[in-house]
Amino acid sequence: MPVARSVLELIGETPMVEVSQLSPNPNVRFVVKLEGRNPAGSVKDRVALSLVEQAESDGILEPGRPGQVLLEPTSGNTGIGLALVARMKGYHLKVVLPANVSVERRQLLEVWGAEIIESPGEEGSNGAITMALRLAQEHPDWHMLYQYGNPANPAGHYRTTGPEIWRDCPEVTHLIAGLGTSGTLLGVGRYLKEQNPKIEVWAVEPPAGERVDGLRSLDDGYVPPIFEQLGGAQLLDRKTVVRPRESIEVTRRLLTEAGLFVGISTGAVAAGAIRCAKQIPDGVSAVIVIISADDGWKYLSSGTWTDDIDVVTKRAENTIYF
Amino acid sequence: MPVDVRLPTVLRSQAGGRSTVSVDGSTVGEVLQSLISEHPGMGEQVLNPDGSLHRFVNVYVNDDDVRYLSSLDTPVKEGDEVSIVPAVAGG
Question: A196 and A175 in contact (C-beta within 8 Å)?
């Protein structure tokens, strides 16, 4: 491996590892792509770099010019990735962050130098988006990258994550990932279906909406504009919800049975893969590629691996981990 | 045939604060119609005027999003659980 000239060159090219010991079906292999190996620790490093480089190539941002301010609503990982990219390129980053993200997410943002603007925790990511859109209107000189509505988000995955998976695991039959902004699924899913239209794309969601008490009505809901504009509903084959307890149980199994120390959302996605594998008929073989968005470090304070499952589940129900 | 429907926080006030209600129906569409006829205030929040699912509403049968099954025609049977979940963002 050649010596990189900048930490930003280390984004992407993440490893894949087989974890078929978790598969309930002997004909179905599980392969995890470890996005926690990115330099700021999550799959969102790819998105952060893609969003900023697109704004630079559009002439909106110019590396090194003083006084440029970036604004982004995020539940954490995109903000952390952006904080790294902004630091290396000399931009000032303001992130709108729900109050109830894990303490480690907040600490990492501070370590990389992002300015945090807190939005009400009970409003979840939706509340952060609403606040950021308002701030962007009030401060037209700030540049909002807007991962939820910017095609550079899925484009980053289409250019990098998708081709890496196809190169390293061409036997893939199913892709499964978390649906947050939908960027990973849109970008990787489209790339893989272009290579092999038979590949199925499955999305996993946490049931966060049940707990977002700040919603006044269902009209306050939110579907990322990129999901609607880029045909997300047509691209996805299935979408399944995985609840906190099952997510934590599988997060623990990934550690104890496969030695993988990964975040809670990876447990949720792997739980979705287990459901998928159970539905594959006898005698049919399959290879499910599981996207692991991040590693476990940011969730140590949640007690996921150490505390009583009932206690951890209760905590997870009040924390944003996607 | 009775089916349990899990309600999001935002709809519970219209069901006397309950988080789960039991209604009849053999498809998701029938279940939602029964729900709305018992709790009319939910109607415009869950369905569009043309009877299709509101864009900010996700409906799951046993944790599978019905938009990727047969939408409102998705069959349900006794013991299934239907969940109504508002669309929210992550990231």
Answer: no
